[in-house]
Write a structure and sequence with these properties.
With 190 residues, this protein is mainly alpha-helical. The chain has five helices and four strands; from the N terminus they run ββαββαααα. The longest helix is centred in the middle third of the chain and has 41 residues.
């Protein structure tokens, strides 16, 4: 059986790889990272084994995906909460309390900024791991070392253009509700 690779795999017996190029046969068949044994794979066409690096990149990408998903859910919950608050206050005739809607909007905005900040840090970690040589992959998930610069800070995430537009629109909706209540209250002599 001939593979479309620069080497031929003649046999795999009980986890031992035979008939690989001399440089690969001199490598250990297993590497241990953080107590976990990872099988050593045959090299990619460039001669660099990629499995440990790809696994590390998958771990980091999983965190990035979860952070992005959580951010999306936060936006949904903030819209639902503000809308439900307005409906509840309108049904009870207490629309003068609409300004209370500012509190959850600001809290969700800050939390969403935290998720965006963490996502940016993990994207920087992903870029760092992507550039590592395979032998230097340590499976570290600490992204704190990449927290330099304005965009990679909590305040930088919170004041990003996308979050300003989204949560700013919610704040404007709350402000309009308060202004409408104030104008209706004055016109009715309340």
């Amino acid at each position: 059986m001939t593979l479309a690779m620069p080497w031929k795999l003649d046999a795999v017996l009980a986890g031992h790889v035979l008939a690989l190029p001399e440089t690969v046969r001199q490598q250990p068949l297993h590497r241990v990272h953080s107590g976990t044994t990872i099988p050593w794979t045959a090299p990619a066409p460039g001669g660099i084994p990629m499995e440990p690096k790809l696994k590390h990149l998958e771990f980091v990408q999983g965190v990035i995906s979860r952070l992005a998903s959580d951010s999306f859910r936060l936006k949904g919950w903030s819209v639902v909460l503000v809308a439900a608050l307005f409906v509840l206050l309108a049904v009870q005739g207490r629309i003068e309390l609409a300004a209370v809607g500012i509190v959850p909007v600001l809290l969700f905005w800050g939390l969403d900024g935290y998720f965006l900040w963490q996502e940016r840090l993990f994207r920087a970690l992903y870029d760092h791991v992507r550039g590592l040589e395979d032998g230097k992959v340590d499976f570290s998930m600490s992204a704190n070392a990449f927290g330099t610069g304005w965009k990679r800070s909590w305040i930088g995430g919170t004041l990003s253009i996308t979050l300003i537009l989204f949560y700013g629109a919610l704040l404007v909706a709350v402000a309009i509700a308060v202004l409408i209540d104030n104008s209706l209250g004055r016109s009715h002599g309340v």
